[in-house]
Amino acid sequence: MKTFKLVALSIVHGEKVEKLELHDGLIINREYGKENWLIEALLPKSNSEKFEGIYKNQEVVHVQATISKPTNDPASFQAIIKNVSIMEEHMSILFEGELFRRNSNYPEKLLESLVQSGYDGEELVQAFKEKINEKPVLQSK
């Protein structure tokens, strides 16, 4: 097993990326099977109902985890919540998931999507620059 410092965590909802307020965290590559990872995130307990609902319903969520340093690109995972622990000021969320590989033709798909949404000219350039860094499109290996 390999353990890394988790420096940022987001949940992907379609084309939108929700950055979570991470206080601390770690990510473990369990090094067996299909790139199975554990992600533990210490978050404010203000959203505990949301995460407890996801846990109870065993919903699959797409998460993006930035490992080791903030300048690294985030890795994308398809995960389920294995545990929610509520503490005095925070909550600990334990995710278990599989690593996703980003689609190699992501820039083309993003550009097509923006043009179809009515962007053009300088507005298209700005929207593309903003969205290309979010990297929300996920695709299995």
Describe this structure in words.
By secondary structure, the protein is an alpha+beta fold. It has two domains: 2-100, Thrombin, subunit H (Beta Barrel), CATH 2.40.10; 103-141, no CATH class. It is 24% helix and 43% strand. The protein has three helices and seven strands. It has helices spanning 48-56, 106-116, 121-134; strands spanning 2-13, 16-19, 24-29, 36-44, 61-67, 75-86, 90-100. It has a six-stranded antiparallel β-barrel. Strand 6 and strand 7 (90-100) form a beta hairpin. Helix 2 packs across helix 3 (121-134). The protein is globular, with a radius of gyration of 16 Å. The relative contact order is 0.19.
* CATH architecture field of the largest domain: Beta Barrel
Low-confidence stretches: 136-141
Q: Could you give a short account of the major beta sheet?
A: 6 strands, antiparallel, barrel
**Rough outline:** globular
CATH class (first level) name of the largest domain: Mainly Beta
Give helix % range: 10-25%
Q: How many angstroms does the end-to-end distance come to? A: 21 Å
**How do the SSEs run, as a string of H and E?**
EEEEHEEEHH
Radius of gyration: 16 Å
Q: Residue-averaged pLDDT, rounded?
A: 86
Strands, total number? 7
Key phrases:
141 residues, alpha+beta, Thrombin, subunit H, 2 domains, six-stranded antiparallel beta barrel, 3 helices, disordered C terminus
